Every structure is written in structure tokens, then in C-alpha cells.
Amino acid sequence: xxxxxxxxxxxxxxxxxxxxxxxxxxxxxxxxxxxxxxxxxxxxxxxxxxxxxxxxxxxxxxxxxxxxxxxxxxxxxxxxxxxxxxxxxxxxxxxxxxxxxxxxxxxxxxxxxxxxxxxxxxxxxxxxxxxxxxxxxxxxxxxxxxxxxxxxxxxxxxxxxxxxxxxxxxxxxxxxxxxxxxxxxxxxxxxxxxxxxxxxxxxxxxxxxxxxxxxxxxx
Length: 219
Ligand SMILES: [Zn+2]
What we know:
This protein is an alpha/beta fold. The protein is built from eight helices and seven strands, in the order ββββααβααααβαβα. It folds into two domains: 135 residues, GTP cyclohydrolase II (Rossmann fold, 3-Layer(aba) Sandwich); 32 residues, no CATH class. Strands 1-2-3-5-4-6-7 form a seven-stranded mixed β-sheet, sandwiched between helices. Strand 1 and strand 2 form a beta hairpin. InterPro entries: GTP_cyclohydro_II, RibA, RibA-like_sf.
């Protein structure tokens, strides 16, 4: 557990009115990774026994441009919807997390290998000599502490993310699934997440294209 705190010169907050209503937008510059991130806060999540939280890794192609090859954009929207439904919660949007931390250019390079050689999201990274996941969740932990958030109910399908946040000192009281419907476009990606990265994606069981236990490529 790191003890870096976010300095007051590195944080600013204002109301942000969105299509989903009003949030508190907390922009901060992380003292360790130097990136500027944002936490969107609804209601008084710190006042609850556990706060509904999404820690979202940026994905420009999915979040901004609505790409359908991954489910990032849908998860972002679904997490915000869930926070609005509950009336309180936090979405931490982490920069520097493109392609699980390899960066935007490298991520698009993996797309070439996926499209032209049929490699999955894991093998396309390792084929380029890149790590499969180098995301640092420290900034999320620091801003949650800054916001006075205690235990969290974490919206994720990724058990490793629970462990990673706990390693940063955040108590995860529960994992809340955030399941996006499978489609012909995203089924290869979701299947690789399930079979190669251990994500819990039960919605794939009903999808004909999701070859159970038949992940492509080497281990
Ligand atoms: Zn994505």
C-alpha cells in the first residue's frame, strides 16, 4: 500500500451536468504516474457502508468512438447507469491504460495482428513483445482515499482487478458483475477475456459463437 496522497495543487472539482444528470467531476494529476485522471462522483458514496465503484481503463476506440470490437464503451455507460440508479457511486476513469497499459499505438498494432492473423487479445500483445497487462491501479486507490471512500462494491468481471485494488489498500466488499451482451463483433474479444484472462462472463454461455474452452493460440 502506497502512502502518496494527491496534493491540492493537483486536483480540481466542479459540477458536471451530463445526459445522465449531474455528477461531481474530480480531475486530478496523479503524484506517481503523472497522468491526469478523473473521478465522477454521484451523491454521497462515502456515507454508505460500501460504495458502488467502477474503475474504468481508458479505451479511446471503445469509449469515444463506439468501437464494437471490445465492450469498453458499453461497460462505461452501464456503470454510469448503475451509479445513477443507486443514487450514489464513483466512476474513476484512468488514463494511460490503453490496451491494458501498452499505449494507443501498440494497441492498434495488436488490432492488425488480430484482424490479419486471427491472434487473440493476449497473443497479439505477446507477439509484439509487449506485456499482457501493465495497468497500475494506484491512482484509483489514491483518489478513492481522497474522496473518503471506504469499502467498495467493485463493478468488474475481472477477479484480478479486485486483487490489484486490494493490493493498493482498497477494501473490496463485493464484486458486482458488469455484463455486456455478446455480439458477433465482440465475441472473439470476450471469449479471450474469459478463457485467457479469467474474466467471469456467464453471458457468453448462451452465445453460439463463444467456443467454450477453445481459445486460440498458445498459452
Ligand atoms: Zn476497449
